[in-house]
Amino acid sequence: MARQPRSLAGKVVVITGGGRGIGAATASALTRLGARVAIGDLDLDVAKRTADGLGDDAIALPLDVTDRPGFTAFLDEVEKQLGPIDVLINNAGIMPIGLLEEESDRTTRHQLEINLHAVVHGTREAVRRMKPRGAGHIVNIASAAGKAGFPGVATYCATKHAVVGLSEAVRMELRGTGVEVSVVLPAIVRTELTAGVEEARFVKSLVPEDVAEAIVAALRRPRFEVFVPRSLGPINRFTRLLPRRAGEWVAHLLKGDQVLINAAHSAARKDYEARAAASAPAADKEAGG
Ligand SMILES: NC(=O)c1ccc[n+]([C@@H]2O[C@H](COP(=O)([O-])OP(=O)(O)OC[C@H]3O[C@@H](n4cnc5c(N)ncnc54)[C@H](O)[C@@H]3O)[C@@H](O)[C@H]2O)c1
Fold first, then answer.
1. Which of 7, 9, 13, 6 is nearest to 82 (CA)?
2. How far apart are CA 152 and CA 150, in angstroms?
3. Is 7 inside any structural domain?
4. Domain of 268: which CATH number?
5. Which of 1, 18, 222, 262 is the most buried (most CB within 10 A)?
6. How many independent structural domains does the chain possess?
7. pLDDT digits (tens, 9 = 90+) for 211-262
8. Which residue among 156, 160, 200, 218 is the active-site one?
9. Which of 93, 63, 108 is nearest to 284 (CA)?
10. Residue 91 Cα, ligand 1 centroid: separation in angstroms?
11. pTM value surpassing 0.85
């Protein structure tokens, strides 16, 4: 008999970068199911507005995931206010678009710090808190760019591939401990991060609620690899079986090799790129910049 889906009522869930986009949609879906959600975001005003809109079950706290002691202190504060953390969703991320040869070292560092180093740190902190209790769920938001390369986002792809590898390894380290790990791999989602990005072919772009729904489903019936849409999983596995040139031809057919790089100089990305460039204040301070 199939096991009953887990209840999320009363669970303490932390979402990094939950002020807007996928994180905010996930916070909303989870509070509707009775979870108590702590939203940590660099943009505290946005996070507060999001939490206020969700009622008494959501709180907003300031967080710069590139400030590792600050990230740890944020998790301590959540536990003080809401109790032991049941679920950590490492969601905060940035995606500057441009050719690698045009990317500044600062932009490279920002992506490594936010998209990767902070996910390593958050995962480690969660394991240390959850393993002794024999329960918990770590959800790392990677991307379809964690399984394939896309021109225009080379460093982003590197960070997301690393998050997949991290999650695979930690999942095995945690076997038998009661702590679950999931890695989420969405296609293009309509948020500020993809401003100016056109539609791919055959893989329709998503809304943040689609990803939220997939995350909720993975929490209720734990699953490791969560492609959104689900059809992306078989497409990915199929193209991997093909010789490289044939796989690249399929990617070309789907416009996967064009959609991101085509947006590199789009005026529609100006505001997002400026926000992304200011997203790692602690890392900038550490680097003396
Ligand atoms: N939008 C997509 O197409 C897509 C596809 C696949 C994966 N993803 C991933 O999903 C995650 C969320 O993306 P989104 O599209 O919702 O982006 P978004 O820009 O809409 O939201 C990201 C949030 O993270 C916050 N943030 C940024 N830097 C931070 C930091 N240093 N500390 C704390 N918070 C910080 C921002 O303030 C923002 O509220 C990212 O990891 C992204 O890589 C997005």
1. 13
2. 6
3. no
4. 3.40.50.720
5. 18
6. 1
7. 999 999 999 999 999 999 999 999 899 989 999 999 999 889 888 899 999 9
8. 156
9. 108
10. 6
11. yes
